[in-house]
Every structure is written in C-alpha cells, then in structure tokens.
C-alpha cells in the first residue's frame, strides 16, 4: 500500500463499515470527490452534501443534527481538515449531548480543492493553500470525546473498526496524500494545458505531484 495514504482508501474502508441505516454527511472539497466515488450508497442509507452544493463546514453540524433527529442510526461525517476546522468547536456540542457521532477527517493539511482549481482551472501555481496542521485526535480528547489517528495505510481498517466500536462522539483523523489529484471524470485539453502551465510556473511540490500523477496512471495501466 502506498504512503502517504490515499484518500480513496480511507473512503472505501469507511464505506465497507456503513450499515444500511447509516446517515452520511459529506463536506465540500476534494473530500466530496472521494465520498462520491468511493463510498458506495446502500439502500436505506441517507447521504447529504452541503445544501448549496459547495458551502464548507456543513459536515459536522449536519452530523450532529442527523444524530439528534435519528438517535438510533449511525451518523457519520466525512470532512476535510479545512472544512472541519471552520466549525470544530461544535464537536463539544456532541460531547455535551452525548451524541455518538463518528467524524472522519481526511487530513491533507491543505485546502485541497482550491489548490487543484488554481492549477487546473486557472493554470496558476498553487498559492497559500497550506493549512497549519492540527492534532485533531488530541483535540477530540481535549473536548471530552475520543480521537483516533491513522497514518499507516495498513492500519486503516483496524483503526476504523476500533473507532466505530467506541461509544460516544468519536473523531478519526486520517493523514492522506495532499498530492492526490481529484481527477475530473473526463479531462479536457484545456485542463491539461492549465495543469502543465501551473507546474511550469513553479507550483510548490510539483515534483511530488508529477510522481503521484504518473504513478496513478501507471497503476491504472498495469
Ligand atoms: C464557506 C466556504 N468558504 C470557502 C469555500 C471555497 N472552498 C471550496 S472547497 C475549499 C477547500 C476545502 O478544503 P478542505 O476542507 O481541507 O478539503 P479538501 O479539499 O482538502 O479535501 C474551499 C476553500 C467554500 N466552498 N465555502
């Protein structure tokens, strides 16, 4: 398994654990791509994305609201670190009301969606998308909840099992590859040109991005 961990792996492992009555609340960002493509929807489940399709920070409050409305269902949030940090204090609301929500954060230390938009839509180098890392597992503990951290892809499955078997509000941070591109379903010539332009203009981490994109392509081919 490749490291840094792929966000697709985390989403797929989450999907495997969701029962038929789960309520899944996704936030905005590249996280929406991983959720839409890698968390299979089962009959009986409810899935939500931001009501206006792109407003960040909805994942946590939607999950709190769904748990209040449906106390007997498993309520899960799948959120990016940027979206979570915008309203993270609300985690303590879940602690206060003993809501057994499970929040999965894909931690790429970046406003990932914007980084890829700058490159692929505009042809600009990535600029100021980095986030200062927060230890979300410690934050969960500090709030009175339980926090887990997944760094090794090989640990993903086991840690998710433990997290889902832990009562009360639980937060799981999964450290994922910040250079994994949320590829559009069909890549246009213009997008490719912009992408190359952004690399040529000096996108930070361009070597890692090229390696990641090439490795993904090769994996698809063999
Ligand atoms: C309230 C709000 N502010 C800004 C944006 C623009 N925006 C869309 S996605 C995104 C970045 C999301 O970052 P993160 O939550 O870390 O998820 P990632 O894309 O890295 O998976 C931003 C800033 C927005 N959609 N909503």
Write up this protein.
It is globular, with a radius of gyration of 17 Å. Helix 1 crosses helix 2. By secondary structure, the chain is α/β, with parallel strands linked by helices. The protein has helices at residues 7-16, 30-38, 59-69, 81-86, 91-96, 112-120, 136-143, 156-164, 189-200, 206-221, and strands spanning 23-26, 46-48, 75-80, 102-107, 146-150, 170-175. The chain has 10 helices and 6 strands. Bound molecules: thiamine diphosphate.
Concise overview:
With 222 residues, the protein is of the alpha/beta class. It is 43% helix and 14% strand.
Give the overall form: globular
Strands of the largest sheet, in order across it? Answer: 2-1-3-4-6-5
Structural class: alpha/beta
What share of the residues lie within helices? 40-55%
CATH class: Alpha Beta
